[in-house]
Each structure stands twice: as C-alpha cells, then as structure tokens.
C-alpha cells in the first residue's frame, strides 16, 4: 500500500521544505504526494515526481487537504508553517491542524518532526488508523429550551 503524504509550506518555509524533500528524494518516490498551490509545483519540479496539486492555501488548498484527511485519503501531513508570520488565512491553518489531530494522522510542522516521521520503523508498515469515536458527539440531544447547554463537546 502506497502511503499518501500531504506537503504544505508557508512562503517563508517553502525553501526549507524543498530542501527537506530533496534530501529525502528516494523515500519521497515511494509515496503518492499531494500539495497546495505553488508548493506542489515546486516539489514536482524539484523531485521530477508527480504531485497532486490542489489550490493555494489562502484559496482553499488547506481546506482541500483537510477534506482529504477526513475522507481517509491522506496518511501523513507535513506542514512547514511559519508561527512567527501573521497569516490572513490563519483560521484555515488552525482548522487543518485540528482536523489532522481529530483524524489521528501523523503530522509534522517542522523539519525535525518530519525527519522523525520519515525515519520511523512504522512508516512502511500497514497501519489501521484508529478512527475517532464520535457517537456521543453526533447523538447528543439538543434541547431548544436551554441554549447554554447546546454546545457540543470539543
């Protein structure tokens, strides 16, 4: 089974991600790669490997990756984001990180963590992703007479 890796990098981190994928070119060839916007174009050009390219992050690419995660179509998220740079699409970034955590996929937000994932002995093993148990959340009764109690558990 070929694992699917999503690659995303903010502008200030694109070169770092490109250096990382280049230094791991042989391993990258063993995966199906997905990426947002110009990151995908740059990775494809650098690796000479097909990359499924989605929209740019601010134009919905982060959300497209999140949807693929929720559908079980992405196995690993490598997202070199810049925590020191303000981003107009910050809510999208937070939503993506949240969905990766909710759906229990390995996620790296920096090069060191990405290295740990890529060198893990589990990387090429078949893994059954533990799906979240949302029955309590989905089955919660909504009582219209008490709006303060109608918040769903986070």
Automatic annotation (TrEMBL):
One cellular component term from this protein's GO annotations in UniProt: cytosol
Function of the molecule: Catalyzes the formation of methylglyoxal from dihydroxyacetone phosphate.
Natural source organism: Chryseosolibacter histidini
PROSITE patterns the UniProt entry points to: METHYLGLYOXAL_SYNTH, MGS
Enzyme Commission designation: 4.2.3.3
HAMAP family found in the cross-reference section: Methylglyoxal_synth (MF_00549)
Key words of the record: Lyase
GO biological process: methylglyoxal biosynthetic process
Composition-biased stretches (Polar residues): 139-148
Family: Belongs to the methylglyoxal synthase family.
Source organism superkingdom: Bacteria
Catalysed reactions, semicolon-separated: dihydroxyacetone phosphate = methylglyoxal + phosphate
Active-site residues (renumbered): 62 (proton donor/acceptor)
GO molecular function, one term: methylglyoxal synthase activity
Residues noted as binding substrate in the record, renumbered to the chain: 10, 14, 36-39, 56-57, 89
Cited NCBIfam families: MGSA, PRK05234.1
Renumbered residue ranges of the record's region Disordered: 134-154
Stored Pfam families: MGS
Protein's name according to its UniProt entry: Methylglyoxal synthase
Ranges where the MGS-like domain occurs: 1-154
């Amino acid at each position: 089974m070929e694992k699917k890796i999503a690659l995303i990098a903010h502008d200030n981190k694109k070169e770092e991600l490109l250096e990382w994928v280049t230094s791991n070119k042989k391993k990258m060839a063993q995966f199906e790669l997905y990426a947002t916007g110009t990151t995908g174009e740059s990775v494809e050009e650098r690796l000479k490997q097909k990359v499924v390219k989605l929209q740019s992050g601010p134009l919905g690419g982060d959300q497209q990756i999140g949807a693929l995660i929720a559908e079980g179509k992405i196995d690993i998220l490598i997202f070199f984001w810049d925590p020191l740079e303000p981003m107009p699409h910050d809510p999208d970034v937070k939503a993506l990180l949240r969905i990766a955590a909710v759906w229990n996929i390995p996620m790296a937000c920096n090069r060191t963590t990405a290295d740990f994932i890529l060198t893990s002995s589990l990387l090429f093993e078949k893994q059954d992703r533990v799906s979240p148990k949302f029955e309590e959340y989905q089955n919660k009764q909504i009582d219209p007479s008490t709006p303060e109690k109608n918040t769903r558990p986070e």
